[in-house]
Design goal:
Blueprint lengths: L16 E7 L6 H10 L4 E7 L11 E2 L9 H13 L9 H13 L4 E5 L1 H14 L2 E5 L12 H6 L8 E4 L2 H9 L7 E3 L20 E6 L8 H12 L5 E6 L5 H10 L6 E5 L3 H9 L3 E3 L16 H8 L4 E4 L4 H4 L6 E4 L4 H12 L2 H15 L4 H13 L7
Parallel strand pairs: 1-2, 1-4, 2-3, 4-5, 5-6, 6-7, 8-9, 8-11, 9-10, 11-12, 12-13
Length: about 400
C-alpha cells in the first residue's frame, strides 16, 4: 500500500467536518455510517443529495437540497429538472444552489469536507474550492468501475484534480484513475478499516461439518449464484461441507430456486439479511469465507475492496474468492486464501475442496489471514483519514 507522508503540524483549534453522501441512510453502507459516527465524533455535519428510505438517525446537522426551497421536495425536484434542461450537470452548478450549500457549510463552521464516492466529490468540488476548504474524496465501487466507462463521468471527474486527496481501496483503482487523466491529485490506496476480532473460537474445527459462509447483497458483482454453483460442485465430492448464505437482493430468487432444484441444496441455508453484528457472528463461526466477485456483465460495476472479505480475515477465516478488482491486493493468494478467475466455478470448487479437506492448510491460512488483517484496522484507517482531512499527524479523539 502507498505510504502517506505528511508534515507534522499542530491540530487546528477549531475543526468541523462535513461528510457528503449521495443518499442518506443506505443500510448496506455500514462503512459510511461508521465515518459519520466514529471518524470525528461531535465534529461532523452531513450533506445528503437525496433522502434515503432508511435514515440513520444521526445526531448531526444535516443538509438536504430541498432546504433551499423551504423543505419542499417537489420544488427541489422541479429545480433539478430545470437545471438539466439548461445543461447544468452538477446539482450545485448554478449560483442559487451553490449559495444554499455554501451557507450551510459556513453556518456550521465546516473546515474540511469528506465526500463519499467520486460522484459526490465532483458534485461539490467547486463549492468546496470557493470556500477554501480541504477536500478528501473516498472512492468505493461503481464510481471506480462502471462510471469510468462513461464519457460524462470521466469528464466530470476532471474537477477532482484540484481536490486535496482521493482515497481508493487498492492500487488497482489508483491505476484506473490515472488512466482517465487524474494525474496531479494525490491518490492514496487504503482499504476500509475493520475491527480485529478477539481470539477466534475453534469449536467448529472439531465438528463433523466444515462451515462455509457467504455474506453480502445478492447482486451480480458479488456473484452469489456462481458461489453457490461452486459449492454444489464441491459438495458432490465432499459430504462434510455446508453453506450458509447471508444477505438478500435481486438475485435471491435465483439462488433459492437453484437450492430447491439441486439434490444437494438441502446443505445450503439462506438466512436473508442480518444486522451487521449478526453477520460478523456468522462469519466468525465459519471455516471458510466464500465470495465469487466479478464485473457485472451488464453495467460493468465492480467491487472495490470487499468489506466482508476484510472482516472474514480479521476473524481468522481464510478466503476463497476471485482475482477481481482489488481482491488480490487484500488476499495473499496461497497464504491467506485461494483465488480463481472470474466465472470459473470449477476452479473455485477445487479451491473449496482443497481447504475443506485439509485441516492443516485451513489452520495455517487462518493464522496468516489474521496477521494480514492487522494492516487494515479501523484505528489505522481513521488515523490516515484524519491526517489527510486536517493535514496533521497530531489528532486527538
Amino acid at each position: 500500500m502507498d505510504s502517506i507522508r505528511l508534515h507534522t503540524i499542530d491540530v487546528p483549534i477549531r475543526r468541523r467536518l462535513a461528510i457528503v453522501v449521495p443518499h442518506s441512510g443506505q443500510p448496506t453502507e455500514t462503512f459510511i455510517r461508521r465515518y459519520a459516527e466514529m471518524l470525528d465524533p461531535g465534529n461532523v455535519v452531513m450533506v445528503h443529495f437525496y433522502h434515503g428510505a432508511d435514515a440513520w438517525g444521526l445526531d448531526a446537522p444535516t443538509y438536504f437540497p430541498e432546504q433551499a426551497f423551504g423543505g419542499s421536495r417537489k420544488l427541489a425536484k422541479a429545480w433539478r429538472a430545470v437545471q438539466k434542461l439548461a445543461g447544468i450537470e452538477s446539482l450545485f452548478g448554478d449560483p442559487f444552489m451553490a449559495a444554499s450549500l455554501m451557507n450551510f457549510l459556513r453556518q456550521n463552521g465546516v473546515t474540511a469536507v469528506f465526500s463519499q464516492y467520486l460522484v459526490a466529490g465532483a458534485t461539490v468540488q467547486d463549492v468546496v474550492a470557493r470556500l477554501g476548504l480541504r477536500h478528501v474524496v473516498r472512492g468505493h465501487g461503481y464510481d471506480l468501475s462502471s462510471s469510468l466507462e462513461q464519457d460524462q463521468w470521466k469528464r466530470r471527474y476532471q474537477v477532482l484534480e484540484s481536490a486535496d486527496s482521493i482515497v481508493v481501496p487498492t492500487e488497482y483503482q489508483t491505476a484506473r484513475l490515472r488512466a482517465i487523466g487524474l494525474n496531479s491529485v494525490p491518490i492514496h490506496a487504503y482499504p476500509y478499516g475493520v475491527d480485529l476480532s478477539p481470539d477466534r473460537p475453534e469449536s467448529h474445527e472439531s465438528e463433523h461439518q466444515v462451515r462455509i459462509v457467504t455474506a453480502g447483497r445478492m447482486v451480480a458483482k458479488k456473484g452469489p449464484l456462481l458461489a453457490l454453483k461452486a459449492f454444489l460442485i464441491a459438495a458432490e465430492r465432499c459430504p462434510d461441507i455446508v453453506l450458509t448464505m447471508v444477505g438478500d437482493g435481486p438475485m435471491l430468487g435465483q439462488v433459492r430456486e437453484l437450492c430447491e432444484q439441486h439434490p444437494l441444496g438441502k446443505r445450503v441455508t439462506l438466512v436473508g439479511a442480518l444486522p451487521h453484528a449478526k453477520t460478523l457472528e456468522a462469519i466468525g463461526k465459519a471455516a471458510i469465507f466464500l465470495q465469487h466477485s466479478l464485473s457485472d456483465p451488464i453495467t460493468g460495476d465492480q467491487e472495490g475492496a470487499p468489506v466482508a472479505i476484510l472482516e472474514a480475515m480479521a476473524r481468522s477465516v481464510p478466503v476463497v474468492s476471485t482475482r477481481h478488482s482489488g481482491i488480490p491486493y487484500l488476499v495473499r493468494e496461497g497464504v491467506a486464501g485461494l483465488l480463481s478467475e472470474e466465472g470459473d466455478v470449477v476452479a473455485m470448487a477445487e479451491n473449496l475442496l482443497s481447504l475443506a479437506t485439509n485441516h492443516d492448510m485451513r489452520r495455517r491460512m487462518s493464522v496468516e489471514a489474521s496477521k494480514h488483517a492487522q494492516n487494515f484496522t479501523w484505528e489505522i484507517e481513521r488515523s490516515v483519514l484524519l491526517q489527510l482531512l486536517y493535514k496533521t499527524t497530531h489528532i486527538s479523539a
